[in-house]
Amino acid sequence: MQIRLFRLLPITIVLSSLFLAFRLPVRAADDSLEATEIHVEITVSEDNIYTITENITINFLTPHHGIIRNIPTFNWITRQDGSTSYNTATVSNVECNEPYTTGYSGDGYSIRIGEADKTITGIKKYVLKYTYDIGNDPLKGADEFYLNIIGTGWNYDIRHLRVTIHLPKEFDPSRLGVSHGEEGSDDYSGVKQKVEGNNIYLEYEQTLKPGEAFTVRCEFEDGYFKRRYAWGDIINRIVCMVATLGLLILNRRNYVNHGKPEKPVETVEFYPPENLTPPAMYYAANKHVSRQSVNGLLLMLADKGCLIIEDLGSDDYQFILLEEDLEGLSEEERIYLKGLWLRASEQDDGMMLVTKQDLEGKFYSSVSDVQSHVRRHAARIHEKGQGKYAVFSALCGAALIIGVPITMLMSDTFNQNPWYNWAIGGAAVAVGVYLIFLSFLYHRRTQENNRLYGRILGFKNFIEVAEKDRLEMLAAENPHYFYDILPYAYALGISDVWIRKFQGILIEPVDWYRGDDFDYFIDHSMNTYESVASSVPASDSSSSDSWTSDSGWSSSSDSGGGSSGGGSGGGGSSGW
């Protein structure tokens, strides 16, 4: 008994998947050769294994090296009652009276008979023998012999066909049927048949054209064939289950050790940690740089005496640039300030002025430069090397989703006990989806960044929940405390909270803001400024692209519930 562990090679899997969707096309007819006679003798064992001998007499009308015989290794089976099944087959013990080579091709198992340095013209007889194993019978409540003696892939005329079938036990001849013609045909006319004991003799003396099949089907009582213990399928199931469980455990362990975020420890912070700028702080906490955090630099630069904000009302404003001295500024501040100076225009009185119109559709590049600089130069956020574990998890998930269900689907026992295979395949798909999902969760921070993240969370929490007496104390220690924290509160999106916290607390106005309503400017006008400063100029989108099958003989009287080309085997043949 063969253990077919390696029949599901990658190439076979791909080809089998294609066979599920459609049958192979008929080869183009070749009138340079013809089969004057074919005699196929089939001995069927109690294990439903076929020993097939094909006596093929070819008339080569032009020089040929020989013939190619293609035998299907995957069979999609259709019956007249509408039922379907499939099997995977193996071809073994190949013998031939002429030199030959074997291999797998798009048509299944290929046998190339002949020699490349010799040609033949005229009559040549080939005797090809092989074992064809289609596994356990797929029917429930009955057994069947259902074989394409000639498949739809033969591309030359067959003038005379004789078939001898030796069955292992007695059977009911009334359940024997033959069909021939194009695929799906149930035509049985012209076929002579004789049954002697367990032997079936068939003869068809008309011409089978290229693309026409000759199929035999006989139904037996359930248990006619011995049920083989499918060791190969059992081992495949075990391997699939172990692989599924093993990959789940391995990737889960990788995630816990290298990807699962550690909870940061929040500390009480009254000032932004590490003297970070608003965009750098935002990036350390959120792993990206928002435009709002970048534009928090405007308030910081104003507070450092680099510019004056003139609030013109109705969400209009302009900036007076005071000096271009970049000394003492962070690199993010320098990039931002340089961008403002590039858009400034000199007034009659020598004042350098930047209006809202000067920034619209122009200043976005400076905002983008700040974002890029922060991403490039900020300390590492994620733990080094975890990306490879995420990719490995995704690849394992994809392999389980694709490989295990196909392996289960192609098993010989699928038709008898499909729920085993569905259960294993379904579990593998579920685990595969989980592993792919898990690959997106690798976000463990470095220890240094995690500590910094805890400080940032503590700082933000202080802004949101600080009590008035604490703020009064800090303001007394640092009269400029409100304005020092404002750019960070704006970057974190809680400037309105920060402003409300200081209502009723005496703070001195600043000379870098000229307008009537500072609170309104921060809460509302700064939002319009963010849109203007980050706006991209409109592009021209007017153009578009175009996509371009004497005594004792009788005529066959039934197709036996089968149809031409609907069974296993058959395949095709061609000259070369």
Structure, described:
This protein is of the alpha+beta class. It has 14 helices and 23 strands. The strands form five sheets. An eight-stranded mixed β-sheet has the order 6-9-2-1-12-15-14-22, with no helix packed on it. Strands 7-8-3-23-11 form a five-stranded mixed β-sheet, with no helix packed on it. A hairpin with a 5-residue loop joins strand 4 (74-78) and strand 5 (84-88). Helix 2 (231-258) packs parallel to helix 9, helix 4 (291-303) crosses helix 5 (331-343) and helix 12 (481-491) runs antiparallel to helix 13. The radius of gyration is 40 Å and the shape is elongated. The two termini are 35 Å apart.
What layout of secondary structure does this protein have?
Layout: H1 10-21, E1 33-44, E2 49-64, E3 66-71, E4 74-78, E5 84-88, E6 90-96, E7 100-105, E8 108-114, E9 120-133, E10 142-150, E11 153-154, E12 161-166, E13 176-181, E14 191-196, E15 199-204, E16 213-221, H2 231-258, H3 278-286, H4 291-303, E17 307-313, E18 316-321, H5 331-343, E19 345-346, E20 352-355, H6 356-359, H7 364-377, H8 386-409, H9 418-439, H10 447-465, H11 468-477, H12 481-491, H13 495-501, E21 513-514, H14 518-533, E22 554-555, E23 572-575
Parallel strand pairs: 1-12, 11-23, 17-21
Antiparallel strand pairs: 1-2, 2-9, 3-8, 3-23, 4-5, 6-9, 7-8, 10-16, 12-15, 13-16, 14-15, 14-22, 17-18, 18-20, 19-20
Summarize the structure.
The chain has 576 residues and is an alpha+beta fold. The protein has 14 helices and 23 strands. A hairpin with a 2-residue loop joins β17 (307-313) and β18 (316-321).
